[in-house]
Amino acid sequence: MIHEVDEGLRRLLEASGLQASGVDVVFDAPTRDWAARRSAPTVCVFLYHIREDATRRGSGAGEVYDEDGHLVARRSPPRWFELTYLVTAWASRPQDEHRLLSQVLACLVAHDTLPARLLTGSLAELGLTVGLDTAGAGLDAPAASDVWSALGGEMKASLGVQVRAPLAGVTTAAAPPVTEGLVVRSAAGREGEDVTSGRRLRYTEVSDPGPEGFTGPRERPPAPARRRRRGDRQP
């Protein structure tokens, strides 16, 4: 899921005109050594914090059916996570960096969610909304100054971007439907009888199947004959 969020952000930023301008979009850690090796205008989208949104955790399990309507698997509900990014612009002059960062800001604040057309993999299959919060005051994540201190670099202008994305639940295969009856074998048989072959109890197909969908009602055995008692009159 994380790499799919990265891909969605990359597509969103490149579609805003960065790719046409020859600006690279990378997801590297902006350390001092990385900054020294940079040679082209770059937008760095660095993921530095991941936390589960426990308030959105669901319960139970959903059912997965095949084309014939048979139950084939059960899937636990998705779990939601908050991914926090530090977005910076890198160029030869501070003015160019600020212009580039302004372009990135205009692109991100125009979207409250990652557009569905940009989603791939499990995010596209789930069909759920992937939230996007740019430079919000309520970002619950380490401060930018702490991130720069951990990276060993000099602090510069940056944007805090938080993405709320679902992680697909665990899928467990279901047992196949019952199609044959039980096989009954006897431990001891008559002389010359093959006791290993057994006798199969077949399910009866009827026009009105029972609640299980494959067996019908049992036939009622005939009532036993009534024994005559002394004193009963003959017909």
Total domains: 2
* Arrangement of strands in the largest sheet: 1-2-5-7-6
- Largest sheet entry: 5 strands, mixed
What is the first-to-last residue Cα distance?
A: 86 Å
CATH architecture of the largest domain: 2-Layer Sandwich
**CATH level-1 class of the largest domain:** Alpha Beta
Write down how many β-strands occur, each being a DSSP E stretch of 2 or more residues: 10
Helix content: 10-25%
Low-confidence regions: 211-217
H and E string: HEHEEEEHHEHEEEE
Shape, principal axes of CA atoms = elongated
Number of helices, counting only DSSP H or I runs of 4 residues or more: 5
- Overall pLDDT score: 81
What would you call the structural class?
alpha+beta
Strand share of the residues? 15-25%
- CATH topology title of the largest domain: STM4215-like
Radius of gyration: 34 Å
Domain Pvc16 N-terminal: 4-180
Biased composition (Basic residues): 225-235
Protein name: Pvc16 N-terminal domain-containing protein
Organism: Streptomyces diastatochromogenes
